[in-house]
UniProtKB/TrEMBL annotation:
Keywords: Transferase. InterPro entries: Glyco_trans_2-like (IPR001173), Nucleotide-diphossugar_trans (IPR029044). This is Glycosyltransferase related enzyme. Residues 8-138 form the Glycosyltransferase 2-like domain. One of its GO terms (molecular function) is hexosyltransferase activity.
Length: 288
């Protein structure tokens, strides 16, 4: 049976690049069955551009666009859209990237062939090609090229591919929301995000996979939502996690989820829980 898919996109003051992203979704070899877009009360032309794009292509039946009655912030905007998606697979979508035309078809093929897969990330290329703003980390994993299962370890407790690469099955949603609530801040001490919670929930369930194939162009620019947040809270972003007290709080919340939800039953998670215990003990020694 063919899997169904929804793209969810939170928009805010994205008029500069959003037309290209909308077009890249429309040009998919296998188009999403539904596209949900919620604008967080932009002060530029974003809402007008999206409305016009949908109207010009007569997409009203499958593309659902609304402007939020009040500003929610990008975290809540995404989390609330998750509940509105009813398809088998949900794709997170940034407003300023570009999808390769085979992104949806390649992802759905991976999900169809791997029943234990609940979340999937891919690689990406950058626009501009020689940018020095965004990294793309190497992920510890196991499996057969080009598809790998991401290993639950301390390094991978931090999200290693951004939300724009994430797609997940609707079966993950209850646990995703639980992690979003129980692990209430990220490793930098900032409020938990939809993509970090999705990555973490699938990692702890042993159902997170990584496809070694670039399937979108990631646009690197200083005006992105995340870059603005880093500028607003510079003291939260400490490169060495061993010197970041917020990472200790993050580990304790994850350990609580592992034990409380009886996820420490697999060998991988037993080892992960031990790693977390040791790291917490290391922090305690440093504090003395």
């Amino acid at each position: 049976m063919k899997l169904t898919a929804t793209s969810i996109m939170a928009t805010y003051n994205g008029s500069q690049f959003i037309s290209d992203q909308l077009q890249s979704i429309y040009d998919q070899k296998s188009q999403p069955d539904r596209v949900i877009i919620r604008d967080d009360r932009s002060s530029d032309d974003t809402a007008r551009i999206v409305k016009q794009f949908i109207s010009n292509r007569h997409l009203e039946k499958s593309w659902d666009f609304k402007v939020n009655p009040i500003r929610k912030g990008w975290r809540q905007n995404f989390i609330q859209m998750i509940s509105q998606a009813k398809t088998d697979v949900i794709f997170y979508t940034d407003q300023d990237d570009l999808w390769h035309e085979d992104k949806v078809s390649d992802y759905l093929s991976c999900f169809s062939q791997n029943n234990d897969m609940e979340a999937l990330v891919s690689d990406y290329s950058f626009i501009p090609k020689n940018q020095n703003i965004l990294p793309m980390a190497k992920i510890p994993e196991s499996g057969r090229d080009p598809l790998y299962k991401v290993i639950p370890n301390l390094f991978n407790l931090l999200i290693r591919r951004d939300g724009c690469t994430l797609a997940f099955r609707k079966t993950l949603i209850p646990f995703l929301k639980e992690v979003f609530q129980k692990v209430s801040t990220d490793s930098n001490g900032l409020p938990q995000s939809h993509d970090q919670a999705t990555w973490l929930s699938a990692l702890l369930r042993g159902s997170l996979y990584h496809l070694h194939k670039p399937l979108l162009y990631r646009r690197a620019h200083q005006d992105s939502t995340w870059q603005k947040e880093m500028k607003t809270h510079p003291s939260h972003f400490i490169e060495d996690v061993d010197e970041n007290p917020n990472f200790l709080a993050y580990l304790k919340m994850i350990r609580h989820v592992l034990i409380g939800d009886h996820l420490c039953t697999t060998f991988a998670n037993i080892q992960l829980e031990k790693e977390i215990q040791h790291k917490i003990a290391d922090f305690s020694k440093l504090a003395v």
